[in-house]
Specification:
Blueprint (H helix, E strand, L loop, with lengths): L2 E2 L10 H14 L19 H8 L4 E5 L2 E5 L4 H20 L5 E8 L1 H7 L12 H25 L3 E9 L3 H6 L16 H17 L3 E5 L7 H6 L4 E5 L5 H12 L3 E7 L7 H15 L7 E5 L8 H17 L1
Parallel strand pairs: 1-9, 4-5, 5-6, 6-7, 7-8, 8-9
Antiparallel strand pairs: 2-3
Helix pairs in contact: 1-3, 1-11, 2-3, 4-5, 5-7, 10-11
Length: 324
């Protein structure tokens, strides 16, 4: 059965919007792959980086005008990020009482986190080999604890997926991440190191009994490297995948693993027929049939959409998946 899911983010900037997002996800994706929604519109403590700061263990952060920074002692904003995550999970637990089936959570990957946080004395964590290693290991340990908490809250879930978001990974590999000053670029991170750090987090997910997926919606997403690091699911914006990427995606499906095709536009002009056709054309191009490893999703997150559009996009993903 082809499933439908979402990338993670939803529109809204308050607690009431979060409750509504949970209801939409559980309602539209019943029998498919619902997930823990994210509402970055609520501020820095609710963004991708803020969520990861809340999950990472044994590292302290505080919030500076330039963003999240490593510190010697946990700051009030890190405590707020953890409190907000706990409140959100309380809502998921309450709304999903009695839920049985598959469920997904999202987590910012180690390289995107290193590219969006700063060292105590400034500049990105990405600039410090030791700091980025420590960050990846703290994230790996944190995801183990996070999954244990999720299992306790949703005991009926029989299939857990953790989607590791790495939008900055292509820039890290290409040496395209700006320094804090904006006048230079950070040095290229070589593929073996990039694979190893990502692998620590993916291995932690697998050891905790969940499926490690990686989502990267960049045009030059290094899908081969990601799969080699231990990803058992690849999530992409299909319009940005090149020839080599299609080969990796096809090989992933043939190996019995998961491909999440971002084929649903996050706009109001999408149609059920067009979404179904886009997925069908891709399957025909790679010579494969739809199966259990195929998942349909929006092309990217829904934070910039209206609430009505966000609901409609998930409806389209579900409808197109049922046609396949």
């Amino acid at each position: 059965m082809t499933l439908a899911t979402g990338i993670g983010s939803h529109p809204g900037d308050d607690a009431a919007a979060y409750v509504e997002a949970v209801k939409v996800v559980l309602g539209e994706l019943a029998g498919h792959l619902p997930y823990v929604p994210e509402l970055p519109g609520r501020g820095a403590t609710a963004t991708m980086t803020g969520r990861a700061v809340a999950v990472a263990t044994d590292l302290a952060f505080d919030l500076q005008p330039a963003g999240w920074r490593l510190t010697d002692a946990e700051g009030v904003d890190q405590r707020r990020a953890r409190s907000l995550l706990a409140q959100d999970l309380d809502q998921v637990e309450e709304q999903a009482q009695g839920y049985e089936g598959a469920f997904k959570a999202q987590l910012t990957g180690p390289w995107t986190l290193a590219a969006t946080t700063e060292r105590p004395r400034g500049d990105r964590v990405l600039a410090d080999h030791g700091a980025r290693r420590e960050l990846a290991q703290a994230l790996a340990e944190g995801v183990r604890r996070h999954l244990a908490d999720l299992r306790r809250r949703l005991p009926g879930v029989d299939r857990w997926v953790v989607q590791v978001d790495e939008p900055a990974l292509p820039g890290v590999l290409a040496g395209a991440i700006p320094t804090a000053s904006g006048f230079g670029k950070h040095r290229v991170v070589q593929p073996p190191e990039a694979s190893a750090a990502l692998g620590w987090v993916l291995e932690a997910v697998a050891e905790a009994g969940a499926e490690p997926w990686v989502h990267c919606c960049a045009a030059d997403a290094p899908l081969g490297l990601v799969r080699g690091a231990g990803a058992r699911g690849l999530a992409v914006d299909l319009t940005l995948v090149g020839a080599e990427g299609h080969e990796v995606l096809a090989g992933t499906l043939e190996a019995g693993e998961t491909v999440v095709l971002g084929v649903v536009p996050t706009s109001d002009d999408a149609s059920e027929a067009a979404v179904t056709e886009a997925a069908s054309r891709w399957l025909e191009m790679v010579g494969l049939e739809p199966g259990d490893g195929l998942v349909l999703s929006p092309s990217c997150g829904l934070a910039g959409a209206s609430p009505a559009t966000a609901r409609r996009v998930l409806e389209l993903a579900r409808a197109a998946a049922s046609h396949l």
